[in-house]
Amino acid sequence: MTERKRDQNQLVINYLYLRKTVGWIGTLLPVVLIAGNALFFTTTLPDSMSSYYYTHMRNVFVGSLCALGVFLIAYAGYDDWDRWITNIAGFGTLGVAFCATKPTVCGAQARTCVAPAVRTLSTEQNVVGTIHLVFAAIAFIALGVMALRFAKLPPSEELRPHGFGGWLRAALGLPQRGQDDPRKPADKRDGAIFRTCGIGILLCVVLAILGNFLPQSFKNDVPVLFIFEALAVFAFGVSWFVKGQTLAPTAARLATRMQHGVAAAALAAEDVQPAS
After folding, report:
1. Predicted pLDDT of residue 11
2. HSE (side-chain half, CA atoms, 13 Å) at 142
3. Three-state DSSP class for residue 201
4. What is the pLDDT, as a whole number, of residue 169?
5. 3-state class of 76 per DSSP?
6. What average pLDDT does this structure show over 214-219?
7. 139, 149, 223, 152: which is closest to 183 by C-alpha?
8. Which helix H or strand E contains 194, and what residues bound it?
9. Integer angstrom CA distances of residue 238 from 22, 27, 82
10. Does the predicted TM-score (pTM) go above 0.70?
11. What whole-number percentage of the chain has pLDDT above 90?
12. So what's the pLDDT on residue 140?
């Protein structure tokens, strides 16, 4: 094996490990925040993932986001679109980590206000909290678009994007009109997973925004924002899991066992057939 070939193989392995690491952080972060806060500190569930900044799990939350941000910025992708989108997602994630969300504001009728909750927000808390929301929206939208782009078809020389519609389809990783899908069945299955994750992330962003219009009494009982944030982060992790081929060995073993099971069942059926 030549030195150049060995370096290329090592680069592929490093990219797979990078994708797997991003997938693990994304899928485990919501679970770790809930479990760590409940087991070691308090059973009170913050109303959003960002609110864990004000709990004892702050270092885990900020450290995980910093790792994700650095990994996303380091990920080069396949073209300029990938690089721009992952860079935007990475810087957005770092912004979420370093700009704290607004702390909980105690109700006007509350007799006591236990820290980190506050009676009123300071100007700094308002400004930084608003910046946090902007970074969060940018990061989630970019992560959703990135998941969609994972499903993009190989570039076609015959069908280049034309006009705004073609440009938008190329940016989102959608096939151009009339473009055939030459991928293998396994790649098509992965593409369906990527699109499901991407649409799920973007849908969670919309639902999280709409959740602000729910009655406060309902939001006090159900952590709506946390649920949608956790689902979006989990979908993001799954998309990178699949891209990093983390589950490929398990899926291959399951497929092999299913094939063996079907073959064994067919042989058993032939054995029990009466002789003619």
Report:
1. 46
2. 22
3. helix
4. 62
5. coil
6. 82
7. 152
8. helix 185-210
9. 9, 7, 18
10. yes
11. 27
12. 95
Question: Where in the chain are the domains?
Answer: 3-105+114-152+163-271
Give the C-alpha distances (Å, rounded to integers) separating 43 from 34, 36, 40, 105: 9, 10, 9, 20
Q: Verify cis geometry, omega within 30 degrees of 0, for the bond prior to 223.
A: no
Contacts of 34 (CB under 8 A, 6+ apart): 45
Closest CA to 97 of 45, 55, 142, 52: 52
CA distance 58 to 72: 21
Q: Which two tokens stand for residue 79?
A: 């073209």
pLDDT value at 59 more than 60: yes
End-to-end CA distance of the chain: 59
- Which residue type, as a one-letter code, is found at position 147? A
DSSP assignment, residue 54?
Answer: G
Closest CA relative to residue 173, chosen from 135, 200, 146:
146
Percent above pLDDT 70 for the chain: 67
Lowest mean pLDDT among 2-11, 67-76, 85-94: 2-11
Here the tokens at position 42 are 């308090």
CB 47 within 8 A of CB 104: yes
- Checking if the pLDDT of 98 tops 70, the result is yes
pLDDT at residue 26 is higher than 90: no
Beta bridge partners of 105: 118
Over the Cα atoms of the chain, what is R_g? 23
204-226 burial: b if 16+ Cβ within 10 Å, else e: bbeebeebeeeeeeeeeeebbbb
Distances (CA, A) of 242 to 207, 236, 257: 25, 10, 21
The pLDDT, as a whole number, for residue 92 is 95
